[in-house]
C-alpha cells in the first residue's frame, strides 16, 4: 500500500512538472512549429453544439480551429473555439472550476442586474435578466434621478440607456453610480476621496476600477462597466462610443454648421493634426479569414479618416512574435492615404514566418521609437499633435515584456504624468478592440485610455464587426460635416444617402413628386421644372420629406430667374431646361444626423474642406479637381433609392455625349445643339464605352453626386432620362 501511494505521488509530481513545462513553453516560445517526425492527424469535422452549428478553419487539419456558432441572443458554452492538436484531438473544454465538458451547448445571453442604487429603489431584484426584460429605478424624496428610469436587456447582454444615479448635489463630486453587475465601495464624494468597483463573479471590469474626486469636482478616469465573459459589445454601441471620442476629435465643423454638439472634450483651435498608429494582431490564432476581415475594416477606417479635414499621418504595424512596420509614420508618404492603403494591401502575413506569438510590447515599442523620432525632428509640431493608437487583437497569448512598460515610455515621451488615471491626457488616446471570446480583458483594460465620458476598450464578437463599427461611427450624428454617408446598405438605407429628400407639390389637386438634396440645414436644392407658379406663390403646398420620415414644409420656393421652359418655343423647342434649378427654404432647420445631412456643394467653403483644398480655393479649382478627366464617375439614386453609377463626360467627350441628346429633338426645330444644350448642362452616360444607367421618372431634381475621398459632392440635378443620355443642369452660381 505504501509503495503504491508513493508511486502515485511521484507520477503526480512528474505530471505536474511536465504540464508546467508546457505552459512555460506556450508562454515563452516564440513559435508554434509543427515540425514533427510523424504526420499530424486531422481532427473530426463532425462535431456538434446543441442549439447551434460548427465551422472549421482548415478542414480539421492539425493547428486549425473549430468555431461554435449560436443564434442571436445565445453564446457557445463553455468555449467558442477549439484548436486541433497534432494528435488529432480538439482541445479540451473546461469550466471555470477546471471540470471538463464533453459537449458544447448554446446558452442564452443574460444581462447582469443593477445590484446597488444609493438613495433609490430598483425592481425586480434578480441577478440576471433575459433579453427583452426590463429593470426599473426610482429615487427617494430629495434625490433626483440621473440616467434611465427603465432599462431593457438587449440580446447582446447589455442594457439600453444609461446607469441610474440618485443624487442631491450636496457633495463635491456627483454620485458616480454603480453599473449593472458591480458593487462599489466608498460612499464619500468629497474632493480627494476615492471609490472602488468590483464586478460580480463571472464578469470582467472594463474602465476605471478606482476613481478619485478631483479638484475640478469630476471623477478621474472613465466609467466602469462589467462585461460577462460571454458578452460582447454590439457594433452599434461601439460605433456610438467611438463617434463621441475619436470622431469628436476629428470633427472640424464647417463654417455653416456652428458647433452645436459637444464631445466632452475640447478641441484646441489650430489643432487638427493627428498621428494614427494602427496595431494589427497577426499571431497564430488569427486565421487568414480574420486577418482579411480586419484588414478590410482598417482600409475602410483609413478611407473614412482621410475624409476628415485634419492633417493625418499613419503608421501600421503588424505584430506576432515580432512587430513589423507595414507603413512607418516617419515615411514621407505616411500622410498619403492611397500609399498607406497600397502598402497595407501588399503586406503578406507570411512575412512573420512561423513565429506567431502575440508580442504587443514589441508593437508598442515600435510606436515609441517612431514617436521618439518625430519628437527629434524639429518641424513636426509634435507637441501639438494628437496621437491615436488603435490596437486590434484577439488577445490569446503574450510573449515579450508587458505592454504597459512600452506605454509608460510613450507617456513619458509625451510629457504626460504617469498618474493613477489618464483623465486629461490630451495628446494620447489608446483604443483597444478585443475580438472574440478568448481576449484577456483585464490585460487589455490596463492598456486602454480611461477618459471621462468616453470609452476606449471594446470587446467585439467577430472581426467582421470591426468593419461595421468603422463604417458607422463616422456617419453618426456627432459629425456635422457635409457629404458624409455610410457606405454599406446593410442597416438603414437613409444613411447611405442622407442628403436626399422627397419633394411633394400639389398641382391642381394632384400630387407631384420630385427629389432634391439638402444643401444646408435650411435649404433644399432641386430642379425648377418640379414647380410651377402655384408653388412659388403658395409655398406651403410644398412638403419636403427627409431622413427617417421627417417632414418639413416650404416657406419659399425660388426658381432660377433665368429659367424659362418656354424660352425656345419660337424655335419649336417645346421644353427648354437651361437654368433648371430651384431652392426651397424650409420652415424649420434640419437636425443633422446619420440619416439627414447636407451634401457638399462645389464652390462653397465646406466643399473646399471636403476636397482638402483650403479655404481660399476658387470655384474654378473645384471644377478642375472634380472633372480633371474627360470622363468622371458619378452616381444618382433611382426611384427605389438604389445608387446607380454613371459617367459625366467633359472636354471633347462632352460633345459626343450631347449629340446623343439631339436624337430627341423634334424634326421641326431650327435650333442648334449648343443653343438647347447650353454650357450649363453636364452630360452623363451616352458614350460608346458605357451603357450607363438612365434616370427614370420620379428622379427629377435629385442630385447627381460625385465621390471624392469618401465625401459626396453635388454635380448637378437630374433631368428626365432620354434615349440613354441624361442631361443635368449644372449649378450655375
Ligand atoms: C487533413 O485535412 C486536410 C484538409 O482538409 C486534407 O488536405 C488532408 O488530406 C487531411 N489529412 C488526413 C491525414 O486525413
Ligand atoms: C510646442 O513647441 C514649440 C517649440 O518648441 C513652442 O513654441 C510651442 O509653444 C509648443 N506648443 C505647445 C502647445 O506646448
Ligand atoms: C401649373 O401646373 C398645372 C398642371 O401641370 C397646369 O394646369 C397649370 O396651368 C400650371 N399653372 C401655371 C400658372 O402655369
Ligand atoms: C414645419 O413643418 C412641419 C411639417 O408640416 C411641421 O410638422 C412642423 O411643426 C413645422 N415647424 C414649424 C416650426 O412650424
Blueprint of the fold:
Layout: H1 2-28, E1 49-50, E2 52-56, E3 65-70, E4 74-77, E5 81-83, E6 93-94, E7 100-101, E8 104-108, E9 110-112, E10 120-123, E11 128-130, E12 134-139, E13 144-146, E14 150-152, E15 165-167, E16 182-185, E17 194-199, E18 203-206, E19 210-212, E20 225-228, H2 235-250, E21 273-281, H3 288-306, E22 311-319, E23 323-327, H4 337-346, H5 360-376, E24 386-393, H6 403-413, E25 428-435, H7 441-447, E26 457-460, H8 463-474, E27 500-507, E28 510-518, E29 523-526, H9 533-537, E30 543-546, E31 550-559, E32 582-586, H10 605-610, H11 619-626, E33 631-637, E34 643-649, H12 652-662, H13 673-676, E35 681-685, E36 703-708, E37 711-722, E38 725-730
Parallel strand pairs: 1-8, 21-22, 21-24, 24-25, 25-26
Antiparallel strand pairs: 2-3, 3-5, 4-8, 6-7, 9-11, 10-12, 12-14, 13-15, 16-17, 17-19, 18-20, 22-23, 27-28, 27-30, 28-29, 29-32, 30-31, 31-32, 33-34, 34-35, 35-38, 36-37, 37-38
Helix pairs in contact: 2-8, 3-4, 3-8, 5-6
The structure holds 2-acetamido-2-deoxy-beta-D-glucopyranose (4 copies).
Residues 383-384 line the site of one 2-acetamido-2-deoxy-beta-D-glucopyranose.
